[in-house]
Amino acid sequence: METIMAYVVGALFAAAIYMMLRRSIVKLVIGLIMLTNAANLLFFVVSGMTRGAPPLIPEGALAPDGPVADPLPQALILTAIVIAFGVLAFAVVLIHRAYEVVGTDDLDQMKDTDT
Amino acid sequence: MRLEIFLPILIPLLAGTLSLALWRSRTAQRWLGVIGTGAMFASALWLLRSTIEEGHVVVDVGGWTAPFGITLVVDLLAAIMVVMTGFMSFMVAIYSLATISEGHERFGYYPLMHLLIAGVAGGFMTGDVFNLFVWFEILLLASFAMLTLGGERAQMEGAIKYVTLNLFASTLFLAAVGLTYGMLGTLNMADIADKVGQLEDTGMITVLAMMYMVAFGIKAAAFPLFFWLPASYHTPPVAVSALFAALLTKIGVYALFRVFTLIFNHDPEFTHGLILWGGALGMITGVLGAAAQFEFRRILAFHSVSQIGYMIAALGIMTPLALIGGIFYVVHHMIVKSALFLVSGVTYRFLGSHELKDLGGVYRQRPGVAVLFLIQALALAGIPPLFGFVAKFAVIRAGIEAGEYAVAGIGLFVGLLTLYSMIKIWAEVFWKKIPEHVEENDRFTGRQADPELWMLYLPLGILAVATVTLGLMAQPFYELVEMAVEQLLEPERYIEAVLGRDQ
Q1: Which of B45, B229, B358, B478 could join B353 via S-S bond, C-beta 3.0 to 4.6 A?
Q2: Tell me, what's the ipTM?
Q3: Is residue A60 part of a domain?
Q4: Which of B126, B167, B214 should one mutate to test binding to chain A, selecting the residue with the greatest count of A CBs within 10 A?
């Protein structure tokens, strides 16, 4: 399972970077969305995927029986997802506003501030 | 409960929340801006005093002992940075009173400023990598909104680049945090450092180090990852530019200093060698970029890249003197670059432009402003006896002592080019006659009174005094920074302070 997920993460990263290299700002944001998902999934995969073993401690015991899934990465990813959601919501509003102000969605025409 | 470690985060958060609650009252928000940042500065000084007395101030948030809970760790470097954050934001808050337009204030300038400061302070104090990521996001989100407030075309274009590259860096940082957790099973910096120190095979650790280096390198605007900075820093109102110049890149530099002294010190030949050359090339690229610019704020933005190069090169050299120089440089740059941005705001107020060709005659009409500019500009170029000289001298001397003659030579040469850029601004804005196509308006000549002008001069004056006094009396500050560097170079003390408490 980890192997398959590793490929999925790799494919997501590749697709995200491809999208970010496109000229359209909409595709840029799609790339950013995929990038954050790829990072979250990577976090999930590398910290170990344990199936069917919730981290519950039996009544009376001080530690769970046998190996259980690690709850910490899930909590962290949840935090990261929420953060990414907020930031991406901002990015979507930003490109909409930029499209209104500049009048194009082509990144190559947004070079006023560069040189 | 150690109150002083929480206050620098809580005060700006509280002030920001109160400002939001008082959304309709501009007056209240303006007062809160000054009082909140002032109180944050005072609490930071308290924290610095405790840190000098105790070495490391450590608090486990929520009572979960390290390495399981989130730990706030303040050593001297962090405390110095928090004090500088408080100082600079206090100065900018005063300046904002007179320069931020009513529209900006109505759309939440002050709440965002407080949020940004809280994020920066939290980032300096945290001892947990995931928590660092969260603080980064908090300050980024605040900075995104501050950068785009006003919604002009240049701001939108700059913001797209700024947002994209910084989001990319954050995502890379998150991926690196995930890999760290997967490899070592911990996120507490002290615990990570402890575990990395026990590993035999450090190949994968170097991979991890590179991910952190790129992620923080983008945030610090290090070479070759700085392109978002000159594209965006000159677009918002100058008070925002000054705040960004003081705080945003510095937290990236601080994070680099932290992880590459505490955690990734296993293979300095490779990692610190890369950092060293990134710094050296950054110095040149930034200063050459600045030489080609003819807009006040763009010149300053490119110089930021060059100055960040010095700080990073100091980290790359990694001797005690180099690190002292690096920290000096961070402090120096926070003061000087913000002050220069603030001066550009003053000349804009007089003449209504940032283009060098539309400016002129400031020395004749306002010699005081010219002096305030000259002090900071010469400090930036490293002219004695100003503070910039001390910082540059320490970095370059450390480079020569470590045998890095090429980097030291580049540092000296770049100092010369910096002087060239500053003299260009001096000659164009202050020295030459006012251009014929620009009319001398009454505000400029002083015929029309400008009752708010003291709010611009006051922070500039204080910053000029800071540059001069730190330069003339560098010794006490040197001793403080020397203690901070001793802590940095002995990571065992940090690990001991976090993990080895009364168990």
Answers
A1: B358
A2: 0.94
A3: no
A4: B167
